[in-house]
Specification:
5 helices, single chain, mainly alpha
Length: 88
């Protein structure tokens, strides 16, 4: 079985989901993961980094949409808490 087919879909899912509530644990380990990933797992580096950053961008867009929605509902304190939690 190809390592890329086993590992990368799970990585993309975690990135798209914003770390699945474990951003403080997952995101500090992203750079070491990128440094250690072998060329056999990602033979096409351009495609790998495109998918990597696209999944992070999806998370950022989702967070922005949630904040805008909460602000429109008058949930300003909740939106501020979300912003604060995502900064740490």
């Amino acid at each position: 079985m190809n390592a890329a087919k086993l590992v990368l879909p799970k990585v993309w899912h975690i990135l798209r989901e914003g770390g699945q509530g474990n951003a403080a644990t997952i995101f500090p380990n992203i750079l070491p993961f990128l440094c250690k990933i072998s060329s056999s797992v990602c033979s096409n580096k351009q495609d790998f980094y495109d998918k990597f950053f696209n999944n992070i961008i999806i998370t950022i867009i989702i967070i922005i949409i949630i904040i805008i929605y909460l602000l429109q509902l008058g949930g300003y304190p909740v939106a501020v808490v979300i912003l604060h939690v995502n900064k740490t």
